[in-house]
Request: fold
Amino acid sequence: MTPRLSGKVGIVVGAGQTPGETVGNGRAAAILFAREGARLLLVDRRLDSAQETAETIRVEGGTAECCEADWTSRSDCARFTAACVDSFGRIDFLHNNVGIGTGDADPLRLEEEAFDRILNVNLKGCLLSCQAVVPVMRDQGSGSVVNVSSLAAVASTPLTAYKISKAGMNALGQSLAMSNARHGIRVNTIMPGLMDTPMAVEGTAEAQGMTRDQVRDFRNQLVPLRRKMGTAWDVAYASLFLHSDEAGFITGVVLPVDGGQAARIG
Ligand SMILES: NC(=O)c1ccc[n+]([C@@H]2O[C@H](COP(=O)([O-])OP(=O)(O)OC[C@H]3O[C@@H](n4cnc5c(N)ncnc54)[C@H](O)[C@@H]3O)[C@@H](O)[C@H]2O)c1
Reply:
């Protein structure tokens, strides 16, 4: 069988990961895209972490270059876009995986600094990344963008700034899809639910003073499907489909990957 991303070139932004026991969404997606034949530029503000992802890909025989960049900087976004074109000659897909939530709180306790930081990283960074890369796709007359949002955009959560930033990403994805459809560019959004990743498990354990197993037990109980969180590979496989030609008539969707949590909301 031909690999599903054979011949394609992609950028994964946030291709490193928070340290921890399991694999993160960005790293899993990058590894899977490479296994399916894509050549990749791996972008992260932590170069060492992107390089770990690249090393795994190279050991498996894949192709990945790295670029240290902060996607909240317009000039950094221009730099990683140019780096991808310089290395591989084109950009077929852009995978926007960056997201943070540290310091978030309910609306009355949320501090201005945390609100500004989370909105800046999660929402403005995504906009700047798209503003840099989509013009290259327009020149090519084709491209796929997947933005990694969160079910928190539509579910109840005490994480106010995170929720607002992800709801903004959902809206941004639909605007981008509509304004780029005639250029042959598809833009889709994934809302992961509760995933067993270091960002969520180690991050919550540290913030709440719980053990990792306590965090896992609590999160597992909230998932309708088998009472078990998903993994980064679940998000990666949905992303693979959306970037592949199999999804050639799909644009503007906001896809939950959540073991049924969105169905519970209704
Ligand atoms: N894990 C979950 O349960 C869950 C649930 C819903 C949504 N998500 C979303 O999944 C995405 C990330 O998942 P992950 O497991 O890969 O997280 P992660 O924290 O492991 O990886 C994110 C990467 O982004 C990088 N990064 C952070 N700020 C950056 C910036 N300004 N510029 C460039 N790189 C930056 C980090 O260094 C890190 O390597 C996020 O968008 C998150 O909101 C996760």
About this structure: The first strand starts at residue 9 and ends at 13. Residues 195 and 231 are 5 Å apart (CA to CA).
